[in-house]
């Protein structure tokens, strides 16, 4: 497999950071943004100011407004935009190519994972998922980061990991796409909950309990979907859950803080909040759990707060008065 050139589609924070990581790994990179003016601005200033202010881009990154053929395709648009993006792309750009899915979320309506969307829309593409504890600003600045890169074939995933690995970006190959995708999607839901704990001043002990019980829920979901709970011991599971559920830098955590302070979802969104994938994913994850008959009280709680069905105080009281049971 030739793995020299990379096309990163999506000119937000994560697409820009992944373009920079691929460039630092020695690849020649096109960053596909939505309009030609933006591409020209990035190329002349050598910075994507709107996405990663002040971050200088490697000379190996060229912004373009139209996707062109590349050995590796990386999709970095919000989870709800992936299907539309794939529908608009020339299928020849995807057929037989490794396509790396980097969005963390489940699709509204279909309940689909990102790799299921790819299989629907571009069945000839080779789907990989990239997830793990990795803030875009850290990756782009060359701060040490490690992620999981999963594909159906572990040896292909290893080749791709080698092509994207650089001095500060270390992808670990894996073969459990389901586990990695569910972990990436659900950690955003728990980050909303942990942010709400912070915003409502419920204490660090409550937040730690949420992380541990969230991990247990995640394991039930992954197992029910045919993934491996063992995957969750790695970067995409424990790694990203720890990062996102404890860091105010996380947009999901910030959104949760606003909910915890008593603000409504609609008002926070109307105020121009940054993308928080857990907001769309929480109701989808709750529906998915119902369809699989998996008990997920924390996902249900976040869904209830997001959709305005319940208040945080009532939810905390409800969670604390659930029947006592064995931990495992
Ligand atoms: N920012 C981060 O630190 C990380 C983000 N991610 C994931 O990456 C995904 C994208 O997040 P960010 O880049 O941070 O969000 P962002 O809000 O910074 O950027 C999203 C970009 O997608 C573009 N976009 C939206 N719809 C599009 C469409 N239909 N076609 C083409 N472009 C479209 C927007 O113009 C924008 O440039 C999310 O799923 C997020 O969870 C994953 C790891 C780290
Ligand atoms: O996925 C991320 C870090 O791994 C980014 O988290 P947020 O989208 O919550 O900022």
Automatic annotation (TrEMBL):
Residues 6-154 form the Glycerol-3-phosphate dehydrogenase NAD-dependent N-terminal domain. Sn-glycerol 3-phosphate binds at residues 104, 132, 134, 187, 240, 250-252. InterPro entries: 6-PGluconate_DH-like_C_sf, 6PGD_dom2, G3P_DH_NAD-dep, G3P_DH_NAD-dep_C, G3P_DH_NAD-dep_N, NAD(P)-bd_dom_sf. Keywords: Cytoplasm, Lipid biosynthesis, Lipid metabolism, NAD, NADP, Nucleotide-binding, Oxidoreductase, Phospholipid biosynthesis, Phospholipid metabolism. Transmembrane segments: none annotated. It is found in: Cytoplasm. Pathway: Membrane lipid metabolism; glycerophospholipid metabolism. Its EC number is 1.1.1.94. Residues 176-316 form the Glycerol-3-phosphate dehydrogenase NAD-dependent C-terminal domain. The active site is at 187 (proton acceptor). It catalyses: sn-glycerol 3-phosphate + NADP(+) = dihydroxyacetone phosphate + NADPH + H(+); sn-glycerol 3-phosphate + NAD(+) = dihydroxyacetone phosphate + NADH + H(+). Catalyzes the reduction of the glycolytic intermediate dihydroxyacetone phosphate (DHAP) to sn-glycerol 3-phosphate (G3P), the key precursor for phospholipid synthesis. This is Glycerol-3-phosphate dehydrogenase [NAD(P)+]. It comes from Devosia honganensis. The lineage of its organism: Bacteria, Pseudomonadati, Pseudomonadota, Alphaproteobacteria, Hyphomicrobiales.
